Amino acid sequence: MFKGKKNRKFSVVCFVIFMLTLSCKQRQTTESDVAKQDMPSRVASESIKWSERMLISEMKRFPESWMLDFHTKPKWSYPNGLVLMAAKRVYDKTGNETYYNYIYDYPNTMVKPDGSILTYDLDKQNLDMLKSGDVLLYVYEKTKEERFLKAIELLRSQLNTQPRTSDGGFWHKKRYPHQMWLDGLFMAEPFYAQYTKTFSSGQEAVTAYNDIVHQFDLIQEHTKDSKTGLLYHGWDESKTQEWANKTTGTSPNFWSRAMGWYGMALVDVLDVLPEDHPGRKRLIGYLNTFADALLGVQDDKTGLWYQVLDQGDKEGNYLEATGSAMFVYTFAKGANKGYLPASYKTVALKAYNGILQNLISEDKDGIISLNQCCAVAGLGGNPYRDGSYNYYVNEPIRANDPKGTGAFILASLELDK
Fold first, then answer.
1. Is residue 23 part of a domain?
2. What pLDDT digit, counting tens, does each position of 142-166 carry?
3. Domains contained in the chain, number
4. What percent of the chain has pLDDT over 70?
């Protein structure tokens, strides 16, 4: 009898332990399931659009927004501005505060209490450094932090002292004298235009808008090829650079991303330029001839574009991701806004599908990558970049260059993908 009671007590204790263990396991499973909702595998969900998937993927690759472009320490640089302004549009669409915090962290890290900017050097007169001013304009509008306003004014002051060509074009950098590059239009003009809209009025605003349009006028005048309608990467007014044509001053080739920068600059400035500005019609005209020229060199099979635009059949050339993504954004936005015929939306969709089919890959966690990105290209400098075909096709190629991922996010948003 005593032995039976003891066994029953033992059984009750075992049952209680079993139930507690089961409850603990169930709780752990529930906690694990909740945790998994924030794991990268969530990115693979088909309910998340490509724009958001790419932004999440970028945030996984670069947990701090100053790390964008593979930086190992904080640096004021233009790719950050491109990706973060694309992130701003994803935030506008989703309301996810995580995205806003990621955007805010960059200026919060880079701008000191006195408004000075880490690693920024005004004396270098580098147009690239103005691109992230777009982010400052955005966060200042939301926070009204005085240091951001001071930093904005610092960047705007650069335009007052930026060296110019004899006909008024901004030099790309002080160390590249007498040169205008297509890149510079995207780096400077959207910031210049948005600053003018926000802070300027009267004659000051008129003068600024005229100056902005003038930069596009000069690029059309000096870099457009009369035969193809394509735009050369750069123009040297002095015609002294080794890469410069001794008659025209233009560089020798049509680089995909250079034209991509220019197209994005056009559609972004048109967002801000007053409807009644006399230069507006010209910019829309430039956009249309730009788009028509690109149709002539688009790859029929994939809908993409080559690194050197007009030499797709030449050995070493490749379908390049950053320029292709920029063209998709430009065409889709141009069509959406009515700047381009509606048919360009179809062109954009074909190219976008070409990106998804040929240039996007996904890892086991659902993190997506954009492949076949030209890492960097320029003209002159040391070591010297001669702008030749062999130069462009032999520059490093990498995945997830932010100049491509940022453009891909923007393109996805315009196509609601």
1. no
2. 999 999 999 999 999 999 999 999 9
3. 1
4. 89
> Which residue, among 295, 271, 306, has the nearest Cα to 397 in the 3D structure?
306
Tens-place pLDDT, residues 292-333: 999 999 999 999 999 999 999 999 999 999 999 999 999 999
> Residue 365 forms beta bridges with which residues?
none
Residues 86-94: contacts with CB under 8 Å, at least 24 apart: 86/51, 86/55, 86/406, 86/407, 86/409, 86/410, 86/413, 87/55, 87/409, 88/135, 88/138, 89/51, 89/409, 89/410, 89/413, 90/51, 90/52, 90/55, 90/409, 90/413, 93/51, 93/413, 94/52
Q: What is the DSSP-derived secondary structure letter of residue 42?
A: G
**Domain encompassing residue 136:** 48-414
Quick check: is 183 catalytic?
yes
Paired with 360 in beta bridges are 370
Active-site pick, 69, 128, 134, 183: 183
Question: Under a CB-based contact definition with an 8 Å cutoff, are residues 155 and 136 in contact?
Answer: yes
State the DSSP string of 392-417: HHHS-EES--HHHHHHHHHHHHHTT-
Q: What is the pLDDT of residues 112-127, one digit of tens each?
A: 999 999 999 999 999 9
Phi/psi for 33 (5° steps) reads -60, -40
Q: What is the CATH number of the domain that holds 154?
A: 1.50.10.10
Check residue 162 and give its pLDDT: 98
Q: Is the pLDDT of residue 285 over 70?
A: yes
Size (the chain), residues:
417
Q: What was the pLDDT predicted at 47? A: 79
Q: What is the mean pLDDT of residues 251-267?
A: 98
- DSSP line for 184-225: HHHHHHHHHHHHHHHH--HHHHHHHHHHHHHHHHHHHHHHB-
Euclidean distance between CA atoms 80 and 13, whole angstroms: 61
Give domain status of residue 312, yes or no.
yes
